[in-house]
Amino acid sequence: MLRSTTSQLCSKADHTSRSLLLHTSASFSAQLVRSGGRDGSRTRLTKDLNPGSRSTNLEVAPKSRGQDHPRGKHPSSSREPFTQDSRRSIRDDSRPKRNFARDSVPHADPEYVSTVKKEERNPSFRRWSRQKNEVNERTGRWKSEEEFHGVRQRDATKERGDKETMRDGNRYSDHHRDRQNDRPGPPRRVDTSSTSKFRNAIPIVSEFSETNTTTGSNELATTFTSPPLMPGILSCLTDVLGPRATPTPIQALSMKWLLNETGQVNPSSGWKQFLLASETGSGKSIAYLLPVLQNLKQSELDAASSPRSPLITLPQAGPRRALNPRALILAPTHELARQLAGFAKSLLHEVKLRVLCASRANVKSSKEHDATARQMVSQFNASAAEKSGEFEVKERSGFPVDVVVGTPMKLLEMVKGRGWDRKEMDVEPDVNELDSEHIGKPRRGRDKMIGFGKWRSQPEMGLANVEWVVVDEADVLFDPDFQETTRLLLADISLARGHPVPISPASALSPSPPSAATTPSTTSTPLDYPFNLILTSATIPTALATYLDTHHPKMMRIASPHLHHLPKTLQTEYVNWTGGNKLADIERRIRRVWAEDASMAGFNGIGDGGLSKILIFCNKSSKVDELGRYLEERNIKNIALSSTSDQRKRGSNHHLDGFLRVRETGAKESEGAPSTGSTETSPAVPDTSISLDPKSSPHVMITTSLLSRGLDFSPSIRHVFIVDEPRNMIDFLHRAGRAGRAGEKGKVVVFGKMKGRGSSKAKDVRKRVGSLVPH
Ligand SMILES: Nc1ncnc2c1ncn2[C@@H]1O[C@H](COP(=O)(O)OP(=O)(O)OP(=O)(O)O)[C@@H](O)[C@H]1O
């Protein structure tokens, strides 16, 4: 039985009476909070996007002791108060200097890294980086750490006694003030009315409470047949998930709110915006793929049955492009884009929508190798003639491809032409000429690559037909470092569809601090995109929450009951450094895991014949390489991957062979698909040869947070090792979440100095990790 409750955040004023009620309740709650309650008690929203709360109902809690603290003081009693001296000594000595800009990249996509490197050359950025390594005097936390305070300690929340302290109280304001003051450049403008609106108005629908699973409009699907899916999609889904699979909470919610009772997206109510938020490995990909694919196919069928209503309803902006997808799926890394594309394909063998993954951005591009979209189309045609028709291209249909998956930067390149972000262009280069021209001149970044910098390739993708945009890992793609690119792409789509939206300058894109601003800003304008927009994430940091409140106040927010918690099937274990060689400690632990597996081999068949695979997360690329070499010398074959690794440049996911989940259907069937030019159409997760011996086949993968986002790792990865102190709990949740997926068992092993002098940091991590464990 579905035990827990699932929360639905919906802010549409014209919704059902329940939405209305929630709206009213939320604002009522906010008023009570501001006034301190009517009867001396405080009202709290006991479930929001932070981990501290369990229930989803509005509750009136007795006045807690935490409230006795005068305003402005840290309400938690567990933290040692910081004296001026202790602060100074921490600032000066005890913390190693960190390069925040590079080291804290949670998702080091090459495009992102290059941006960061560019910024590092900028003196004001360096100054900002230095400042970020300081301690926030009021809260005693690292300022960089506070970046992600969207995930909080449950125990700390309990002590404080109310969640509003976090959202509305001093800590919230201080955090944002500090963050904003740390940034270089002019202070950001803020529309205080909209931010306070978000903080207070978090309407929550309790959908999964034990008493509330089957009645009336609260009924949620327990099978994939209600609302009905198309037979072709349903049968592929059954192939992929197995005949007994039932929707996960986020999938049931998504089917309920994105599809109507006939299984279609309601066409009459305009373009919609959704946020799907649930813990790692809970099936968010299917939660958005089902409604999107079903809708795309349905509208194709409708258009075919009534020729007077052609699928292309909007004028094509500019010259006609070879690719005119109807849906875009954005992901922060190429690895994830490839896996998502493979996953979507596996659901489409019968209904025959065409999915294309744009994922070769890591490969050097030269004129000869850079296939144009037309070449791509002809290759698709050839493959369609030979093969099962997965990439069947109807040349006259105007839709050689229905869905394109890629990073925002890669998609922008396809829309604007490669090199669009460079000033010089016009002429397509002669490689020799380029070389001679640049003799004696320092070449930087992309300019180092032949074919980049001086020229611009032809745009190959039009956006006028885009009806759906999915932003996977939305907290990354709307992170201040990424959102400029993401929003530029969204604005381009809007323009192409004839409804331009304002484009804000980069400096105005960051979330607005509620305390800092006085002037209303143009950036707080709600963005009504002329397409359906779905954001998904396993974590909603305050930055994203504030951004959504500011720009997407009407977005329907759908969250699962265990958001911001570790998956239930994931155990947590802490390992103490022995005080000697840390690499040797890690090796010992690996061998211990395998010894345990071997002893269990009689009882279960783990992984590929008894030994489980292990994923190790480090904070730095140099540590990845060092550990990789160390283990290799000791006959533990491993794959060490960081953002700069050569293996990543192949344009496929083969460097993850044996570690990503392989689904029997989709992946294997699409194995022979052509890979062309700037696109990747080969399977996301090819199967690998099986070897029982960790000396000959890699059983260990070492990486940074680069691979922590969204990737669906194989169930044979039963252990995730976190060998460096996690930078923040959001990063931790995503790393740990690579195991224990889809109800599989797993263990996250956190290394640290747990005893004696210098153990306070590890103990603090332990406490914070403990607060993420679901009850
Ligand atoms: N209803 C279901 N029943 C069984 N398995 C499922 C179900 N839905 C999804 N899965 C499987 O769960 C795994 C994780 O799914 P998915 O990658 O979509 O999770 P996610 O929520 O996006 O995770 P992350 O936050 O890490 O990106 C996949 O292997 C998927 O096939």
Automatic annotation (TrEMBL):
Record domain Helicase C-terminal: where: 585-775
Protein name according to UniProt: RNA helicase
Presence of keyword Nucleotide-binding: yes
Keywords annotated in UniProt: ATP-binding, Helicase, Hydrolase, Nucleotide-binding
Biased composition (Polar residues): 208-224, 673-682
GO molecular function ontology, one term from the record: ATP binding
Pfam family, one: Helicase_C
Catalytic reaction(s) noted: ATP + H2O = ADP + phosphate + H(+)
Spans through the membrane: none
Enzyme class name: hydrolase
Top-level taxon: Eukaryota
Helicase ATP-binding domain location: 265-558
Enzyme nomenclature, EC number: 3.6.4.13
InterPro entries, A to Z: DEAD/DEAH_box_helicase_dom, Helicase_ATP-bd, Helicase_C-like, P-loop_NTPase
Residue ranges with Basic and acidic residues bias: 36-47, 85-123, 131-182
Annotated segments matching region Disordered: 33-224, 504-523, 666-696
PANTHER family linked to this entry: DEAD-BOX ATP-DEPENDENT RNA HELICASE 50
